[in-house]
Amino acid sequence: MEEKLVERLESAVARLEAISISGFRPAEGGGDAAAAAALDPSIVAFEDLMGEYVGRVSAAAEKIGGHVLDATKVVAEAFAAQKQLLVIVKQTQKPDMAGLAEFLKPLNEVIVKANKMTEGRRSDFFNHLKTAADSLSALAWIAFTGKDCGMSMPIAHVEESWQMAEFYNNKILVEYKNKDPNHVEWAKALKELYVPGLRDYVKSHYPLGPVWSVTGKTTVPAPAKAPKSSGPAPPPPPPASLFSSESPQSSSSRPKVGMAAVFQEINTGKPATAGLRKVTDDMKTKNRADRTGIVGAGEKESGASSRSFSKAGPPKLELQVRKWVVENQIGRKNLVIDDCDSKQSVYVFGCKDSVLQIKGITKSSSLIQQCAGKVNNITVDKCTKMGIVFTDVVAACEIVNCNGVEVQCQGSAPTISVDNTSGCQLYLSKDSLEASITTAKSSEINVLVPGAGPDDDWGEHALPQQFVHVYTDGQFVTTPVSHSGG
Asked: Quick one: how far is CA 317 from the chain centroid?
C-alpha cells in the first residue's frame, strides 16, 4: 500500500516537473490551477493510458527498430501533446473557433509529421507508417464542440478513425503472421491503444467532448513550442475540417463546399433546376443541323470553357440514339439531363470535378409519369471527383475505374456496382435501401442512408474491403474481415 502511494507521489512530481520544463506558463496567479489540473483524475487516467498502452507499442517497436520505431515515437509524441492540451482545457474557458484552431496547433503539427513519413518512395514498412499516421486522426476527438460541429461524437470518432487505420494494420498481421512475431505484437498493441484504450478513456471521462473550465482564463495559453527546424513550415493536415476556424453551425445548415454543397442544395426543397444550365431543344444532337452533338457554352462562360477543355477530347453532352453521352467535362457543376426516359441509358466518361443531375420528363400522362426520372442504366467510367444525382434507374448504376466519386439516388435502384474504384460515397434514399451493392477491387466505399426521422442525421456505413476464404465441405466460404484479432 505504501509503495503504491510513493509511486503516485513520484508520478505527480514528475508531471509537475514536465509542465515546468515544457514552457507552459499559466496566467498570473494560476500556478495552483495548473498544478490542480495536472493532478485531475482525468489527466492521471490519461497518463496511465500512456504508460500501459503506449508503453506496450513502444516496447514492441524497440524490438523492430528502424522506421517502425521512428513512427512509434511520433505516436507517443502525439499522445504527449494531447495530454498537454487536456491540462490546458481544465484551466481555460471554451474558445471560439479561431482560438480552438490555435489550441490544436501542437497536435496538428505532430499529425503532419506522421503523414510526411508516408510520403515519397515506399519503404518495406509502409503499412506500419500508414497505420501509425492514419490512427492519429483519432486524437482529433478533442476538437469536438457539440453535435452541430460536423464531427461524430468523441467515442464514435475514435472508433471510426481506427477503422481507417485498421486496413493497413490487418496487412501487417497477415504479412508477419508466420514470419516475425514482433511485428504482430506491435500491430495488436497499436490497436489496443485505440480500441479499447483511448475509446474507453474517452467514454469514461469525455463522452460529450472536452469539458472546458467555467471560471478559467478566457484565452487559450500558448502550448509549448516544438523545436525549430531548418525546413519550411509544414502544410495543414488532410483532415483540415476538424481544425478549421469557421463558426460552428448545424450539420444541416452550415455552409458546405464542393459536391456536398450541391447535394445539400438539391435536398433543400427548392426547385432542383433553379440556376442550373439546361439542355434545350436546339442543343440536342437530333435537332442540330451540324450534328456535332457538342453543347456550346454561353458568351459569359466562354473563358471558363476554354480553361475546362480536356486534353482527351472536347466536352460532350449529347443523346446518341438511345444513349446520353457525357464526356470530358472539367469543373462543370451545373450539368443537367432533363429529357430522358426508361429506354435510354447514360454513359459518363473522363469527367473531373463536375456534377451531373439526371432528371426525367414531366408530362401529364399517367403512364409517362410512372417513367418520369427513370433511365435504363447509368455508367460512370474513369471519372475523378465526380458527382452524380439521379432519381430512378431501371437496371443498374455502375461505377468503374473512378476515384473520389459521389453518387446520390433520390428514388430506387435495384443494383449498384462499384469496380476498380478508390473512394466512393453512395447516398441512398428510403426507396433504394433494398438495392444490391456489388464491389470488386475497390477501396474506401461508404454508403450513407437516411435516418429514421426527417430530422435525424444520415448514417454512414463502410463496406468491407478484405475477405477471408475458407475451404469447407468441398467449397470455399467467403466472409468479410471485421476485426484484426489474430
From this structure: 32
Residue 339: DSSP 8-state = S
CB atoms within 10 A of CB 374: 21
Q: How far apart are CA 462 and CA 464, in angstroms?
A: 6
The helix or strand, by DSSP H or E, that contains position 419, with its residue range, turns out to be strand 415-419
Q: Kindly give the pairing relationship between strand 415-419 and strand 392-400.
A: parallel
Distances (CA, A) of 168 to 41, 65, 172: 34, 19, 7
Question: What DSSP assignment string belongs to 27-96?
Answer: PTT-HHHHHHHHTSHHHHHHHHHIIIIIHHHHHHHHHH-HHHHHHHHHHHHHHHHHHHHHHHHHTBPPP-
At residue 12, the 3 state secondary structure works out as helix
- CA–CA gap between residue 436 and residue 433 (Å, rounded): 9
The C-alpha atoms of residue 456 and residue 415 are separated, in whole angstroms, by: 26
- Residue-wise pLDDT for 280-301, tens only, equals 776 666 666 655 444 444 444 4
- Residue with cell string 440514339: 321
Measured CA to CA, the distance from residue 371 to residue 369 in angstroms comes to 5
Q: Express each pLDDT in 164-180 by its tens digit.
A: 889 899 999 998 988 89
Q: Number of helices and strands (H, E) in the chain? A: 14, 16
Q: Which three cell numbers stand for residue 195?
A: 480500441
* Length of the chain in terms of residues written: 486
Q: How far apart are CA 438 and CA 200, in angstroms?
A: 35
- Residue 336, beta-bridge partner list: 357
Please count the CA atoms within 13 angstroms of the CA of 464 that sit on its side-chain side.
Answer: 11
CB 375 within 8 A of CB 353: no
Q: How does DSSP classify residue 173?
A: H
Q: What pLDDT digit, counting tens, does each position of 388-409 carry?
A: 999 889 889 999 999 999 999 9
DSSP state of 217: B
Q: Who's near 232: CB < 8 A, 6+ residues apart?
A: none
φ and ψ at residue 182, rounded to 5 degrees: -65, -40
Q: From 451, 452, 458, 378, select the one nearest 418 (Cα to Cα).
A: 378
> Would you call 349 helix, strand, or coil by DSSP?
strand
Higher pLDDT, 453 or 288: 453
CA neighbor of 43 nearest in space, from 94, 81, 84: 84
Sign, Cα dihedral of 191, 193, 199, 200: positive
Residue of 360, 307, 367 whose CA lies nearest to 338: 360
